[in-house]
Design brief:
The protein is an all-alpha fold and 130 residues long. It is built from 4 helices and no strands.
Length: 130
């Protein structure tokens, strides 16, 4: 079975994942650190930006594959995918140790929550053939 819509968003999210990983790796290299953050706030923020991505995106992609596999309409999938990509682009710019309520952080995470809700609704409708 093919999952063309999920695949489209998985590719875009892979690019974001790699950019976040590169930011962590560059900083670790500059500080000669293998693990941890050594109390460096900038590195800690970069680690959390990457970590937050890893906490959200796999579950959303699993839900997208399930929804697409069960025949959810393209509108549901594109809505969830676009929300996720937009949220994951915005979130790192707002995730700052000194600004816990930064608008971009809130918007980014809210977009991912909405993507999960959209997918939960799509899966529910598919499960009950509504």
């Amino acid at each position: 079975m093919n999952f063309p819509i999920t695949s489209l968003y998985a590719v875009a999210l892979t690019v974001i994942f790699l950019l976040l990983w590169i930011n962590v790796s560059k900083t670790r290299s500059a500080l000669s650190l293998s693990i941890g953050d050594a109390g460096n706030v900038d590195l800690h923020e970069r680690i959390r930006r990457h970590g937050n991505f890893v906490e959200w995106v796999p579950m959303i992609l699993i839900l997208m594959v399930l929804a697409e596999g069960q025949g959810a309409g393209p509108l549901w999938l594109h809505a969830a995918g676009a929300l996720t990509v937009a949220g994951r682009i915005l979130h790192p710019f707002g995730l700052r140790a000194n600004a816990p309520a930064h608008p971009l952080r809130i918007i980014g995470n809210t977009a991912c929550i909405l993507a999960m809700v959209v997918l939960a609704v799509a899966l529910t409708l598919s499960a009950f053939a509504l």
